Amino acid sequence: MTTPAQILAFLREAEKLKRVLRHCWHGDERRQESVAEHTWMMMLLAVLSFDQLTVQVDQLKLLKMILIHDLVEIYHGDIPAFEKDLMNQQELHEAERTALVRLLEPLDENIRAELLALWDEFEANETTEAKLANALDKAEALSQHLFVDIDTWTQGDYDIQPYYRDHFFNFDGFMRQLKDEIDRESMRKIEAENALDRVKPEFVARYRNGS
After folding, report:
1. 89: helix, strand or coil
2. SS3 state at 197
3. What is the rounded CA–CA span in Å between residue 140 and residue 195?
4. pTM summary value
């Protein structure tokens, strides 16, 4: 059993996630959002989605998975998707897993095993819960870009914001609808700023065709 002292020791380290900033900016545009804020928004989106899903999920398991999916960024920081895609994925995975094992050290063996298994499941992206968590991760990041001034976007954002990782959303009808709406809103935002020339031509064509 995990003792109160062990929980506090873990929380002392986990609290650092509040200080880790992400690539995307905060809605008030005075600072970038924190990883902890991203995680909270993912959980809110998950709760709002539960009754709309066409697939069955273990809701508690999913929420736990969301809570721990980015804890490793305490040690590794946030890496924007357009940079992470260029990295050696196996090396990154191994480094992040090692970091999570280190972070979980204060906890009882049973809870350590549970949380590590949930992280492994998220990374494998094979179960329904993992697919939903990964889709929510991307949906939250993409929607956050809709809520901030487009002046905070980099070229990397224009490269991936519309239609990024589309196939991650095909496992569920509602998630597919959500992603399509985010994509449409993204392209409308870009068009309103007369910035379609910064988007890949195939994405502009897809937008024009209404697909």
Report:
1. helix
2. helix
3. 22
4. 0.93
Where helices occur in the chain by DSSP H, the ranges are: 4-14, 35-49, 59-68, 73-76, 81-84, 89-103, 109-124, 128-146, 155-160, 173-192, 201-208
* Contact between residue 96 and residue 72 where contact means Cβ atoms under 8 Å apart: yes
Measured CA to CA, the distance from residue 61 to residue 172 in angstroms comes to: 18
Q: Supply 178's token pair.
A: 């959500």
Q: Any idea of the CA torsion for 153, 156, 162, 168, to the nearest 10 degrees?
A: -120
d(CA 53, CA 68): 22
Q: What's the token pair of residue 91?
A: 């090396």
CA neighbours within 13 Å on the CB side: how many for 155? 3
Burial of 10 (0-12, 13-18, 19+ CB in 10 A): buried
- Residue 29: phi and psi, rounded to 5, are 65, 15
Q: Of the candidates 114, 111, 133, which has an alpha carbon nearest to the alpha carbon of residue 122?
A: 133
| Cβ partners under 8 Å of residue 42, min gap 6 | 66, 133, 136, 137, 140
Check whether 13 has a pLDDT greater than 90. Answer: yes
Report all structural domains of the chain as residue ranges with CATH numbers, in order of start: 4-149 (1.10.3210.10)
pLDDT at 193: 95
Cα distance between residue 103 and residue 118, in whole Å? 14
Question: For 77-93, how does the pLDDT look when each residue is reduced to its tens digit (9 = 90+)?
Answer: 887 777 777 668 888 88
CA distance 13 to 10: 5
**Spatial distance between the Cα atoms of 73 and 69, rounded to a whole number of angstroms:** 9
